Amino acid sequence: MVGPNHPPFIIAEMSGNHNQSLERALQIVEAAAMAGAHALKIQTYTADTMTINLDTTDFQINDKTSLWNGNNLYKLYQQAYTPWEWHKPIFDRTLELGMIPFSTPFDETAVDFLEDLNVPMYKIASFENNHIPLIKKVAATGKPMIISTGMATIEELKETVQTARAFGCQDIVLLKCTSTYPASPENTNIVTIPHMRELFQCQVGLSDHTMGIGVSIGSVVLGATVIEKHFTISRSEEGVDSAFSMESNEMKSLVIETERVWQSLGQVSYGPTAEEKNSLKFRRSIYIVKDVQAGDILTKDNLRVIRPGFGLAPKYYEQLLGKKVGKKVKAGTPTDWSLFV
Fold first, then answer.
1. Nearest CA to 99 among 87, 112, 90, 110?
2. Mean of the pLDDT values across residues 86-114?
3. Residue 181 — pLDDT band, cuts 50, 70, 90?
4. What's the CA gap between 227 and 165, in Å, rounded?
5. Domain that holds residue 147
6. Are 30 and 232 in contact (CB under 8 A)?
7. How confident is the model at residue 130 (pLDDT cuts 50, 70, 90)?
8. In a domain, 65, yes or no
9. How many domains, in total, are found in the chain?
10. pLDDT, tens digit, for every residue of 216-265?
């Protein structure tokens, strides 16, 4: 249930936070469910489907700003991948707990495997959004696709979306994404969300790699209908993605606060809401504040703008000063036009 008429759809991304323990993976599933996430996502690949086992420069991460600096790609994927035999128990537990289980395939063999498990939808990672053969393969299943847009130009996204639609996918959600880990708020550019929605005529959300929940909450104001965050039980236990992953209390806050923001959007509205009408009486209005006799002149001494709001509106105050009272009036009487000569 994704769209502006529903609360933001929150995805907990397990990625490699299981640290090669199925028991831990199932604990993450349970923690995500307790925190209120609507879906649990994993990733489907092996080191061999991602790359080749070489130690040459091309296959090493040499970036001092990267969490994975110094790693060999093949060995990193060996550490991070989710064993395929774990998929079914993870999916089964996810379903038991009321969440939607799905995955990110990274090649065509992963799609075939996930089809055998009857996944209800697919995620395309930012690093694969230009992998047109994979897009065709996933789209041909006819199932919804969530596509992260990190690094992609408008032309690349056009090709990806057009390909997905041409090969059978009609339900597409694009996720604004900055493919750095963690991402900084300054480089997130969530004002792209409404532009992307208009340009591609589909739902748009956020794959959020920033720390905390502020950026995700802000994206809802701009129309994000899906939020994806990496999720772990504890960042202190470390793992390939733990440093920028969300913990249970943060996920719970994300679910609650994004729904509150969504509820608050409403529609363009002026004037008192139905709930506010009872509060109108606490506005200020014009009152007689001292006993006056017929013929007395209203002055700042006997006429004031005070609460509550049962008298004439404050805008008439200057107009009433200097008027004669037509009858005896007690202090505490709200003004109305029948009081004056």
1. 90
2. 98
3. confident
4. 23
5. 9-45+81-265
6. no
7. very high
8. no
9. 2
10. 999 999 999 999 999 999 998 877 888 889 999 999 999 999 999 999 99
The pLDDT, as a whole number, for residue 66 is 80
Burial of residue 68 (number of CB atoms within 10 Å: 0-12, 13-18, 19+): middle
**Does residue 315 share a domain with residue 246?**
no
User: What pTM was estimated for this model as a whole?
Assistant: 0.88
Q: Can you tell me the distance from the alpha carbon of 221 to that of 185, in angstroms, rounded to the nearest whole number?
A: 16
Output the domain CATH number for residue 295: 3.90.1210.10
271, part of any domain:
no
Enter the tokens of residue 296.
């007395």
121: tokens are 């939808």
DSSP label at 245?
P
Nearest 5°: the CA angle 278, 221, 158 is 150
Give the burial class of 4: count Cβ atoms within 10 A of its Cβ; 0-12 exposed, 13-18 middle, 19 or more buried: exposed
Please report, for the domain that includes residue 239, its CATH number: 3.20.20.70
CA distances from 38 to 89, 100, 111 (A): 18, 6, 22
